[in-house]
Amino acid sequence: MDAKKSARDGIFTSFPVDILNALPDPVLAIDADGRVADANSAAEGFFETSRASLARQTLEELLPFGSPLLALVAHVRDHNAAVNEYRVDVGSVKFSSDKIVDVHAAPLPNFASYVLLMLKERTIADKMDRQMTHRGAARSVSALASMLAHEIKNPLSGIRGAAQLLETSASDEDHALTQLICDETDRIVKLVDRMEAFSDERPVERERVNIHAVLDRVKLLGQTGFARHIRFVEVYDPSLPPLFANRDQMVQVFLNLVKNAAESIGEDISGEIEISTAYRHGVRLKTPTSATPVSLPLEICIRDNGPGVPPDIAENLFDPFVTNKSNGTGLGLALVAKIIGDHGGIVECESHPRRTVFRVLMPTHSLTDGRAGTKKDGHGHTRVAGE
Fold first, then answer.
1. 231-282 pLDDT tens trace
2. Does residue 282 share a domain with residue 152?
3. Are residues 319 and 360 located together in one domain of the fold?
4. Burial category of 7 from C-beta neighbours within 10 Å (exposed 0-12, middle 13-18, buried 19 and up)
5. Which residues span the domain enclosing 168?
6. What is the pLDDT of residues 193-244, one digit of tens each?
7. pLDDT of 306-336, one tens digit each?
8. Which DSSP state fits 326?
9. Do 266 and 226 form a contact (C-beta atoms < 8 A)?
10. Rounded to an integer, what distance in angstroms lies between the CA atom of residue 28 and that of residue 76?
11. CB count in 10 Å sphere of residue 253
12. CA distances to 92, 171, 336 from 121, in Å
């Protein structure tokens, strides 16, 4: 087949187009001049532009300056051999988030000097790995909390009692010292009490929960207290089906996330917190509460325009005792991760200056007899709970 003709008419016209477009991963054909000769539907979504627009660009224009993917394509072309490379950064200023991919590059048969690229985005795979890490960390805190409750709270009670007895006969100068002992023991007890939340292994009482009612309650609490100077924006999908969750714990989770957002913004009068909900297909995860992978189509996001998460703690943000607050314990987000994990969901953070998003993905509600409930979405399509 003539290479010039194929570049004009589309490389993939010689392949079953439906099959290529059904692939979930971006596939690109790169011609001898480094231009995008063709692309499948997933590539359009990945690069956030149309197939026609992609075909007008070179690979160099699509990628960040000095991207290793350019050298990889040259290597495949020079050696006429397939190459795999892992964790390649193909992000650029055009994207709203990082783009880390595994790459399979191979010469395209019957098209001289053409290279076929298949990109496997690492975001979801890394997300699953981090969720397992968060859950392992939560289990470690659970064991620690059980030990602390017994080994520390009881002695602290005795220390505080002794300090109160001393206070009755202490001089005025010593009253400050006995009060300091009482205050510090109370502070340690409060910390241990917060940690005990991790060791509560009782089954969670769940019911059908309207997540928008939960978010409205959280917003009201914020507007009348810690976030009174911040503007709230709501972007809700009104057709979202209910969660099967513990309502109080959901309030605790999203109140924590909104409070974190407000504290990140600080006193900035231009501060804004966006609360959004959406129904997303495609994310499936095997959780401790399910023997088989389940869909997590319910997405709830808390976005703020604060300075962002410091890079040195971003990777461990949901681990216990990780915080950049001078008076923080680092247990709030760890507890959020535990509660969401106990409900079969995941929570992730994507942070850039002036745009930090905490994204919670949850399963839909299923009927108690095991049957999946159904609901029409905003486009008239039937949604199946748990699909």
1. 999 999 999 999 999 998 999 899 999 999 999 998 888 899 999 999 877 6
2. no
3. yes
4. buried
5. 125-199
6. 666 665 556 677 889 999 999 999 999 999 988 899 999 999 999 999 999 9
7. 988 888 887 778 777 677 666 666 677 888 8
8. T
9. no
10. 14
11. 29
12. 15, 69, 26
What angle in degrees, to the nearest 10, is found between the helix axes of 123-151 and 332-342?
Answer: 110
Same domain as 114, residue 130:
no
Q: What's the domain count of the chain?
A: 3
Same domain flag for 362 and 219: yes
- Which residues have C-beta within 8 Å of that of residue 356, sequence separation ≥ 6? 261, 264, 303, 304, 306, 308, 309, 349, 350
First to last CA, the chain: 44
Report the chain's C-alpha Rg in angstroms.
Answer: 27
222 plus 344 within the same structural domain: yes
Q: Are residues 154 and 185 in the same domain?
A: yes
From 137, 169, 199, give the residue that closes a domain.
199
Of 86, 105, 121, the position where a domain reaches its end is 121
CATH code (residue 100): 3.30.450.20
Enter the pTM of the model.
Answer: 0.56
pLDDT value of residue 302: 96
